[in-house]
Specification:
two-stranded antiparallel ribbon, mainly alpha, disordered N terminus
């Protein structure tokens, strides 16, 4: 787990509180923001990921290397946070039904696809990450795998609630739901990513996975 640097400060309680000084560690968000923006500036200037060292980021952001290392363990972890900043945030799930949750997850995937298409930086970074096994593995572990586990949890709850059949392989079902959006977002870049697409995908797949109609 990343240990974030925080300046130690002493916060005095007022007399009404009846207590002594409380030692707090306020987080320096402005410093973190300047570091992330420093990486983004280097990417905007066309610097390849392989050439972006901690030393170079420190010079660009106007901070010391130790300041960066107290917040990130190394380049891979820093790059992942930069991508998270550039990508749309992961959504809150409504929890009303499996169908509703799946539509929200697919909508988030659709928005990331749109961001990738509209952002030359994101498109370039993703392409470079795939040629760096260590960085791609770190991105999978920190971002992609948790998202997959989240969608699998949604499907398991749907199975428990009878929204899909008990004999359905949820790993395969997850690929059936997410696959069409990934194909359009990553492979078929000339295809549409319309707002209605998440609902269309979910309802189409559910027709084959839902409980059998009573005879």
């Amino acid at each position: 787990m990343r240990e974030r640097s925080q300046d130690v400060g002493v916060v005095e309680q007022d007399a009404a509180g009846g207590g002594g000084p409380v030692r707090g560690r306020p987080r320096s968000e402005s410093v973190e923001r300047s570091i992330v923006e420093g990486v983004m500036k280097l990417l905007e200037d066309g610097v390849p990921l392989a050439d972006i060292s901690i030393e170079r980021v420190a010079r660009t952001a106007g901070v010391g290397k130790a300041t960066i290392y107290r917040r990130w363990s190394g380049r891979e972890e820093l790059f992942i946070d930069v991508l998270r900043t550039a990508e749309p945030p992961d959504p809150e799930l409504p929890g009303t039904s499996m169908r509703d949750d799946l539509i929200v997850l697919l909508e988030s995937l659709r928005r990331r696809g749109l961001a990738n298409r509209s952002s030359a930086i994101l498109h370039n970074v993703y392409a470079q990450m795939k040629s760096s096994p260590k960085l791609w593995e770190a991105y999978h572990a920190a971002v992609i795998d948790p998202r997959r586990r989240r969608s699998l949890d949604v499907l398991r709850r749907g199975q428990e609630n009878g929204e899909i059949r008990a004999d359905v392989d949820v790993e395969l079902a997850n690929d059936l739901f997410m696959g069409p959006m990934l194909v359009r977002a990553v492979i078929r870049l000339d295809s549409g990513l319309d707002e209605v697409l998440p609902e269309q995908i979910v309802d189409t797949v559910l027709q084959g996975l839902g409980p059998a109609a009573p005879r």
